[in-house]
Amino acid sequence: MRACLLSAALLSLLGGAAASADEPKDALLLAGSGPGIETDLTDDVGEAVTFALGGDKGFRALPKEKVQAKIGYLGPNKPGDCLFDTECLRKVHKELGTRWFVVVRLSVEDGQYRVVVTRIADQGNLDVAVSALVPRSTSDLINKLRALVGGALAEPMTMLTISINEKDALVEANDVKLGQGSISRRVRAGSYRIRVSKAGFTTFEATISCVVEQPCVVPATIFREQTPLERPTTASGVSPTTKTALVATGWAVTAIGVGMLVTGAVFGARSTALNSELAEVCPAGGVCTIGRAEADQKVTDGRDAAKLFNAVGIPGIVLAVGGLAMALTGHLLTPAAGQGGVTVTGVASPGFLGLQAEGRF
Length: 361
Known about the structure:
By secondary structure, the chain is α+β, with helices and mostly antiparallel strands.
């Protein structure tokens, strides 16, 4: 059977009395129209459910005329568009400043009442909606609505867990102090601004939206604050005397090395020349044109020259390179008043500590 939408609306007072200024303000809107739905039914059911909620939940309803005027309700045949527009109802809920704003929509479906109960919240994701089919009995309808509306009024809760790496850090949610260290609390579903702070550490801030009965976890990590190093330091730190000695020694060693290298080169050339002469006068597989004694002497002289090259020339190369490096190091490590040199500066920032080197030549 095609459902018939109810178009009557009712807002009842708890015990017929309006809520005082310092008490919470609530609203229960019962709406619907169609064949089989009488005005007396909506009046009786609305009053009975509101009265029951007053005893069970402390429900304090605003005068129905005030809410009807807000939503533009003119009667069962002219309920207005706002009645079936959730965002319009949310706007009215905020303008009235109500704590609970519940809408009950009725229709007739296959000989039964189709009941849809919606609790309008400040945010759409926090709305609570339940529905049921109820036999066409006034007492059954009242009892079912009492249970459905009571369930819709239960605060939607979730578990908020904030894990922190510093156990004595202060935890705040929506500017409310929750305590220190990691925390788990059951809270109402909604958005929370999380702030974790500790003296000498960076501050953690985040906004999270917690959904009904779903884990809401915030891992918060804070770091120790770092300050930039104010004074650069030089890598050497040597005195002028040490610098002069280092440079002088380096150049002296270089000179010695170069001298040994030249001497070694002379003996190396001598060894090569003797080997060439011996190869000419005593070709391989041929007859020597000089005497044996002379040939043996050339061989001996060539070997001695080669030994002197290895003993003097090669160490000379090492000393020359090492001395040059020592002299250059002496010049570079201690820059002279705005001249060339190497400067090493400490650099520090949150999560980083290092050195920065600058060379000027």
